[in-house]
Amino acid sequence: MDKLPPLAFFEATPDGFEPLPFAQSAWSPTMINGPAVCGLLARELENQFCPAGFLPSRLTVDMFRAPQKKRTTVLTKVVREGNRIVVADAVLQQDGQDMARATAIFLKQSEQPPGERWTRAEAPQPPDVPPADGPTVPWWNSSDSAEGWTNRIRDHQNDGHKKMWQTPISAVLGEAPSSFVGAAIIGESTSLLTNWGTEGVGFINADLTIALARPAEGLEIGLEADNHISVDGVAVGSATLFDRQGAFGTCVVTALANAQRAVNFGKGYRHPAEIAAQ
Q: What is the arrangement of strands in the sheet containing 16-19, beginning at the earlier edge strand?
């Protein structure tokens, strides 16, 4: 039996972050995947700029170049430090070249204002599985599958409404992801869930925005697709982040058609986490 790869996207070194096997992209074996990029940027911004009593409330990541499986560095700076808001930027670099950038907003938590407000009536529901205390193989669900929730991604290659549920691996080896980092890692799959159809995923996302009203309760995090809109090779997708207590955030991505290199999860495909779990 092969040795299990480290359950993290990167290893921290004095010279930066070295990508590990789970950072490999489904688009190309030489690329780093989106969850790894978003998780690392979220980790750096939160660690450096989130004061006590503040919520990491919004993260926007622009992924304008394809990061390669090589040493990666992150540069950060504070944009605004106020009594109730902190804004900070980060740039992910390889060989001195900008590959992605991120902005985070941290908001001070306080009392709810009076009054009642509208919210969606039907909260997303997790699969009926025991609570997990560590990284798990993703659970997938689609409305057009007779299988219900399964750990086999290939069961859900259809044009149905999709959901996922997972306890994410670490952004950096040796440390558990925070709620914010976990939400960034799982939230990046908004592109997967909203752009995945009968022939696989033919759109590649250019960005991710997650907006959070509260931290996730624990690290079991779900994602439910809300909508897909696409015209002339440009797509917009939205999804809801949820945990065992209900919805706690929203995700939005934009994406470009990439049909010639579409990722096909059909017959015979196995998610890297499925392989590692054996």
A: 16-19, 8-13, 170-172
